[in-house]
Amino acid sequence: MAGDALRVADLPGRGRGLVAARDILEGEVLLSEPPILLYPSSLASLPSYCSACFRCLPQAPHAAPCPSCRAAAFCSPACAAASHPRLLCAALSRLAAAPESHQEQLLFLLSAYSLQEPAFHALLSLSSAPQGTQQQDAASLHAMVSSLAPPHMLPAGFSPDLTAALLSKDRTNSFSIMEPYRPDVAQGLRKARAYAVYHRASLLNHDCLPNACHFDYPDRPGPGNTDIVLRALHGITAGMEVRISYFAANWRYADRQRRLLEDYGFRCECERCQIESKWKFDDDENDGGDGDDDTMEEEHDKEDVGNGGDEGMEQEEGSDGDNDNDDFPHAFFFVRFMCDREDCHGMLAPLPPLPSGELSHVFECNVCEQLKKEEDDDETGGDDSSMVN
Ligand SMILES: C[S@@+](CC[C@H](N)C(=O)[O-])C[C@H]1O[C@@H](n2cnc3c(N)ncnc32)[C@H](O)[C@@H]1O
């Protein structure tokens, strides 16, 4: 049972995290949960995605504009009835006049201040981002929310301090729900359609060699299309922490460290970082871009907990002839778990085991959704695989 797989634990040096409550099989679904907060990534994304479920909107006249704000649109009568955050709806028509650099945070704040209990409390209980320049904008963002939202709709407790506290939750705990993968769009140019915060998934800590990865299926039919689904990459022993990578796992050492320090406030000392910190690089390569795709984070610029950039491991490996195989003991991880489709940089997780416990040899990419069949491994662990679709 997916619900039995994880428990929350306090972990030295990492705050809370999710730990395997029992032995876990590779491919198992560890978590499947709806967001506590879901909000559009930008004003520009509104015409493309349903403002309730964030599926791609059908062409006019099948998309129904929100009767209140006329700026958002819904894909079905059910989504129109579900509507979208009430403060956001009330403010949306005037949001375009706000400075573009603040619009994303205003979308977050207006959506967060629309939350009811217990979701609002759950959001506030998440860990806070490190203090940074974005936090210095809290006072001006608070004033903008005050001017955009009708006073009678503002919740009890609305204050500059509460606004600052909310902002500190966003960057560290949000996942991007990305635009659909398209082979003709470079990974670094793909944008988020929405951001989501989760009660349990936002407790996942980072590892540069993760043992799990998450999937989104925003365009799948039926309910639960914005649920996050967490799957084990390989077997996990009871008591071990379950961790994901906060960005594409093939980012270079310096880029990973920079992102984790600036946006998540910690220095990664995982086994892989300890080895790669000893690698030698040309200065220009280690000073390279941060692989930001974001929004992502890419967000473009927002960091989020779970999507990545576009820097390739090949660049890292090839950068220095001194790094031989003894220095790179994790090669098999990348062969087995990184999608090799051009410009994808997704992670491959095995499909869930059969009810009998039989493990799957088919892997699914969490970015391009490609299925890849792993044939029986040869003794060298070579990449003996073929595409299923
Ligand atoms: C999405 S939250 C994860 C849950 C968080 N540990 C908590 O207590 O709520 C991200 C934050 O967890 C911490 N964190 C995540 N991975 C870590 C790691 N590998 N080492 C140290 N701290 C980590 C950092 O403070 C980071 O900003």
UniProtKB/TrEMBL annotation:
Domain SET: 4-247
Pfam families in the record: SET
The protein's name in its UniProt record: SET domain-containing protein
Biased amino acid composition, Acidic residues: 282-301, 311-325
Domain of life: Eukaryota
Region described as Disordered: spans on this chain: 281-325
Record-linked SUPFAM superfamilies: SET domain
PROSITE patterns reported for this sequence: SET
CDD domains given in the database record: SET_SMYD (cd20071)
Annotated organism of origin: Brachypodium distachyon
InterPro entries, per database record: ASHR2-like, SET_dom, SET_dom_sf
